[in-house]
Specification:
5-stranded antiparallel β-sheet, 4-stranded antiparallel β-sheet, single chain, globular, alpha+beta, 2 domains, 8 helices
Length: about 200
């Protein structure tokens, strides 16, 4: 993932939204400067400055270089229509409208690093998940539900390797995610969360 700045279109879209509307997003608050937003993502906090057109990590690591994809994802979350509370109905990417055709080839969900790193060590996967604020889920051999944003849970289901089958991983979303984010942003959510899990 590159570290370029988001296209000006994204910044203009954010600047055109009222502060009141943006602050309705769960996990978002106004910063002390009165014009920037503080946004929670997993276990970290970020400053999104529409006037300065910059995004920085406040904690835990202020010197982190943030990828362009991640910065775009934060902005798109800030300008998203409120998708409503968590429904409790879990679906796969194929259950999303248009998901069967979209999530193929280059848009296949980015789970292979999870399989490579944790396919034979599910306890390490759970420990890493807990570090990022995830909670266990009763799926697969080891399921962990991550909260990239407070009301947008993403569940990783890890299946251990055995004598018959290689390790694998799948993703479950709460059905409300399609009201929050477009398919390309859902793809980015998984891309970024996976990279955080494996420590990149």
């Amino acid at each position: 993932m590159g570290c370029a700045s988001p296209n000006p279109f994204h910044w203009e879209d954010l600047a055109g939204r009222s502060v009141e509307k943006v602050l309705k997003q769960p996990g978002v608050r106004l910063s002390q400067d009165g014009h920037s937003y503080e946004v929670k993502f997993l276990n970290a906090l970020y400053l999104v400055d529409p006037l300065g057109r910059r995004i920085v990590e406040i904690n835990p690591n202020p010197v982190n270089l943030l990828s362009e994809e991640f910065q775009i994802l934060l902005i798109r979350y800030l300008v998203a229509d409120y998708g409503g509370p968590i429904t409790g109905k879990e679906i796969s990417e194929k259950d999303l409208q248009g998901g069967v055709t979209f999530f193929q080839g280059p848009h296949a969900l980015h789970v292979s690093p999870i399989v490579k790193k944790y396919g034979s060590d599910p306890d390490a996967f759970e420990n890493r998940g807990r570090e990022l604020g995830a909670v266990p889920s009763a799926h697969g051999d080891k399921g962990m539900t991550f909260f990239p944003f407070p009301e947008i849970p993403v569940t990783y289901v890890l299946w251990n390797e055995d004598d018959e089958f290689p390790a694998s991983a799948t993703i479950l979303f709460d059905k409300s995610i399609e009201k929050w984010l477009s398919l390309d942003m859902i793809f980015l959510v998984v891309l970024v969360v996976t990279e955080r899990i494996v420590g990149r």
